[in-house]
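Friendly challenge for the regulars: who can give me the structure tokens for this chain first? No prize, just bragging rights.
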Amino acid sequence: MIIYNVTVKVDLDIAADWVQWMQEEHIPDLMKTGLFTGYQLCRILEQDESEGITYTAQYFCTSLREYESYIQQYAETMREKGLQKFGGKFIAFRTVMEKISS
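First reply, four minutes later:
Bragging rights claimed.
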């Protein structure tokens, strides 16, 4: 299994709206691509939240082929939607992981 992990630090003043957008728009749109088998959205605890709240969205796919298809076909558009909605009020970094064991 491949895990596409997106870690996002969101400004305090948009955090609630960002979570709602993720749950109601972004994640459903991403899942509609048919390239991922599941996801989870988490809040990272034990972090200094004075400058924002940190979340991680993890999307699961069966192979690198699905992940690469997402990056080539959809990622730019999906990222642009977030930038249009929230501007510079968040920062994100992405990692790709392979699950070794449960």
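The chain has a mean pLDDT of 95. Residues 2-97 form a domain with the Alpha-Beta Plaits fold (CATH 3.30.70.100). Your move, everyone else.
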